[in-house]
Amino acid sequence: PQVTYITPAGETRVVENAEGTLMSAAVANQVEGIDGDCGGVCSCATCHVHVDPAWQEKVGPATAAEEGMLELEDEATEASRLGCQVTLTPELDGLVVRVVGR
Ligand code: FES
After folding, report:
1. Which keywords does the record carry (predicted)?
2. What DSSP string runs through the chain?
């Protein structure tokens, strides 16, 4: 799918044919602000994003494991997801997220 990342600096990065997860696609395309330090096992929160309100229902809520990590993050909101836990599917074509990172 096509994914738009709004970086912490406010830049818009559009990634075409994004593959894997919101984290791995960002790392593969050098999207600023998403480091993926833990390699995608939900234990670093460097892949923290806020899902655009229009997409929150399709993306779904954070899992219990994500909630455990997000509790430690100052900028956690109801829109928060850890990018490594969001698998990119064709249904998510056009997705927009704001990078929080860490
Ligand atoms: Fe570490 Fe997502 S990459 S929590």
Report:
1. 2Fe-2S, Iron, Iron-sulfur, Metal-binding
2. --EEEE-TTS-EEEETT--SBHHHHHHHTT-TT---TTSSSSSS-TTEEEE-GGGHHHH-PPPHHHHHHHTT-TT--TTEEEGGG-B--GGGTTEEEEE---
